[in-house]
From TrEMBL:
Mg(2+) binds at D182. This is Isocitrate lyase. The keyword Cell cycle does not apply. The active site is at C220. GO terms for biological process: carboxylic acid metabolic process. Substrate binds at S101, G102, W103, G221, H222, R258, N379, N380, S381, P382, S383, T450. Its cofactor is Mg(2+). It comes from the Bacteria. InterPro entries: ICL/PEPM, Isocitrate_lyase, Pyrv/PenolPyrv_kinase-like_dom, Pyrv_kinase-like_dom_sf. Pfam families: ICL. Can also use Mn(2+) ion. It comes from Alteromonas australica.
Amino acid sequence: MSQYQQDIDNFATLKAASKGTWEGINPEYAARMKVQNRFKTGLDIARYTASIMRKDMAEYDADSSQYTQSLGCWHGFVGQQKMLSVKKHQGTTSKSYLYLSGWMVAALRSEFGPLPDQSMHEKTSVSALIEELYTFLRQADARELGDLFHKLDDAKANGGDVTAIQAEIDNYETHVVPIIADIDAGFGNEEATYLLAKQMIEAGACCIQIENQVSDAKQCGHQDGKVTVPHEDFLAKINAVRYAFLELGVDDGVIVARTDSLGAGLTQKIPVSTSEGDLAAQYNAFLQTTPVAGAEDLSEGDLVIKQGGQLVKPERLPNGLFRFKENTGFDRVVLDCVTSLQHGADLLWIETEKPHVGQIAEMVNAIREQVPNAKLVYNNSPSFNWTLNFRQQVFDAWVEEGKDVSSYDRDKLMSADYDSTELAVEADERIKSFQADAAREAGIFHHLITLPTYHTAALSTDNLAKGYFGEEGMLAYVRGVQRQEIRQGLACVKHQAMAGSDLGDTHKEYFSGEAALKASGEDNTMNQFDV
């Protein structure tokens, strides 16, 4: 017996026990509503999606071609449409996640208006967006299952294949998928991190990404001025997130430890070393220092530390920050990653300045010398000029191979004049295979684009506005939007149904029977799209 039929029987038993007071309740309708609301709480979602991520991680460890992907979404509707599209075109939601970008929360969801990616937005905006995304994904499930129930009723009334439709219902694949959620640098101390992590998990997050920047000096990973914290401070926040997962019963929750050390040349404080070679000593070894022979080498307020048996003065800037030695980013990244994995993190995020498989692989291979199963979440960032980067990579490879590049200007390879050249074609092929190549060669388990839907919203709006307010008028919308929606089979062309009108009509029938006042009658203009 299917779960659906069991639910019908259980509700029928409950109805019988009500001694006639539930005569307005139809057990099958109740069973349908239960199926359409599979996840009752955010914690149900977090536990379900955590198990998916753990399974996906194990499958990637066995076969690197089984990497996962996501796109950053800044609104529930955007996330819903993304997953509807994935399921429509790929036939499954497997290996497809959502990414919640702190950058987009700051830029698009703050009550202050657009903000830079500096942890200035309300921290509760993050958990609110997680809840919103899952509300829209669950509504997508309810809408599709509602259509299946209508098909089931038609099959029962007209002698159709009831068994086949019932199988579709019983084996229905949800649109609810894991969200990798950005908690920035924790929005404060470790207690603040714990409290926000709890909110995020309760909203449905099974995976939290946290970075090793100073919380109150947080910068976007692709901007200058980044300041990192000592390992002890970062590990305390990793512990705080793990405690939040364990307290809420999400025992296999996933933590992504992000390091910005490759591009960060500053630290806010010097940690206290208690034994030679401990983590604090290793961190301090990267500081830019000058030898101190005596008090005459010091100015008022200077700091002195003992390092390798000698007294040295760390270089301190006018703002009180300390500078790292140049060209230590690689080694700091490796130490950050190994330390995080050895102290509770599950996945790594290395913020790089360009998308280069060889550069990423070099760091990952160094990490894997100490943690063999280390794997990455990687930002396929819109902050990279992908076209120019890959054309220059091909140019440099050709130079190394001794190939003639005299017809190309390396500094101007972004020009459309090169679009149909052999170099541009090869660069595009490298971009196309970048994710598969990096998953295979550089240990990348999950590829994401942080803020693609920020850019798609801007581009599509620009194209529509250009035509609509120009010579095309209404044709700009009809030809560029609606006609494409119809021909490409987008469900949201019936925007009333997407917003829940059909689902609401069904519920009205459940609640009110023939007295229900419905919106989807013959005069509903949405019927024009039944073509």
